[in-house]
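Support request from a user on the community tier.

User writes: "When I paste my structure tokens into the form, the page sometimes reloads and wipes my input. The last time it worked, I copied everything first. Here is what I submitted, just in case something in the input itself triggers the reload:"
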């Protein structure tokens, strides 16, 4: 039968078809709807702003068998830490990622108090820290399978941490230097399975390249893209070709120990990534803070201003544009921590 080109579908069928197409279009690109998980709930990625991607508020290295909320008074911690957070807020920082894991001083309620008081977005985490010979792990970490560990971490994302209702914004694990032990392979496997169920990024305390690339291999076998993996403390790897190689795979290269005494070293690492067209895979931070329970006034707390006051001016002197700096401090963190499943 010859048609004239007009839509000959009945109007009610045409309307349903259009609605279905619109619904599909709305779901077609979930990355456009990505969000960040803060201690005060989700925010749109575009509202993350200038971000410090690896810092600490409080860290308790007494050991998993002795740590707990009884070790510190939140009011005392706030009194020490809040001025440092207000200081970076005045410098333009909008978000801070607290990377202290469970059993080393993670305290979601403390972070919420500090977020509310400072105006900063703050992220906390789920996961377990296996570095330093597994000293900071509870007994269940050894007996649970990878699936059981993942189930625990997924539950924190779905229900909140320890009854607080506060949900993690990332997975934080830790492995030792050198080749991965069987136990640390279990940790990264559990992290991979948690990512596939939640979309949380995996930040792994790693250091040298050998364990970094072994973790990337495990993620690939689990069906997780390298884009979900943050190679924490990548500055410990002095062969800068390894940074390039991991970044080309899609991993995030976290150069997170910036201080007044190592600026030249970090400038060289950032310039190396830029020269290879990989500035879009770099994250920078201080790994600073560290209120220490048991020490007078929390010990020697290190502030978070070096990047703003010293490192960024040096980058500008080297010819880094405002766009380059925004890439490092805003665009990359938003992409790295966006809650989105990233399948291989």
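"...and here is what came back when it finally went through:"
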């Amino acid at each position: 039968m010859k048609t004239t080109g007009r839509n000959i579908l009945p109007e009610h069928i045409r309307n349903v078809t259009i609605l279905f197409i619109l619904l599909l279009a709305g779901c077609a690109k979930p990355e456009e709807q990505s969000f960040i998980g803060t201690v005060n709930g989700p925010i749109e990625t575009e509202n993350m702003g200038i971000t410090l991607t690896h810092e600490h508020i409080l860290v308790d290295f007494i050991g998993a068998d002795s740590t707990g909320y009884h070790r510190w008074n939140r009011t005392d911690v706030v009194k020490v830490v809040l001025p440092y957070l207000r200081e970076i807020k005045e410098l333009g920082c909008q978000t801070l990622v607290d990377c202290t894991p469970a059993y080393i001083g993670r305290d979601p309620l403390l972070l919420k108090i500090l977020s509310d008081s400072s105006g900063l977005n703050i992220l906390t985490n789920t996961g377990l820290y296996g570095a330093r010979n597994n000293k900071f792990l509870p007994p269940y970490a050894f007996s649970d399978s990878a699936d059981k560990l993942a189930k625990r971490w997924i539950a924190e994302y779905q229900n909140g941490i320890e009854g607080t209702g506060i949900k993690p914004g990332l997975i934080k694990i830790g492995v030792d230097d050198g080749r991965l032990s069987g136990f640390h392979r279990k940790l990264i496997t559990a992290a991979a399975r948690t990512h596939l169920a939640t979309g949380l990024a995996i930040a792994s305390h790693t250091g040298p390249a050998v364990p970094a690339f072994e973790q990337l291999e495990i993620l690939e076998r689990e069906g997780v893209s390298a884009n979900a993996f943050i190679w924490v403390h990548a500055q410990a790897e002095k062969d800068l070709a390894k940074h390039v190689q991991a970044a080309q795979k899609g991993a995030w290269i976290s150069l997170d120990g910036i201080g007044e005494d190592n600026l030249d070293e970090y400038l060289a690492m950032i310039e190396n990534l830029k020269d290879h067209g990989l500035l879009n895979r770099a994250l920078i931070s201080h790994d600073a803070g560290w209120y220490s329970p048991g020490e007078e006034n929390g010990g020697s707390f290190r502030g978070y201003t070096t990047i703003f006051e010293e490192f960024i001016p040096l980058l500008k002197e080297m010819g880094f544009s405002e766009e380059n700096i925004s890439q490092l401090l805003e665009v990359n963190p938003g992409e790295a921590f966006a809650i989105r499943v990233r399948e291989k």
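Agent notes: The reload is a front-end session timeout and is unrelated to the input. The domain at 50-337 is CATH 3.20.20.140 (TIM Barrel). The longest strand covers residues 51-58. Escalated to web team.
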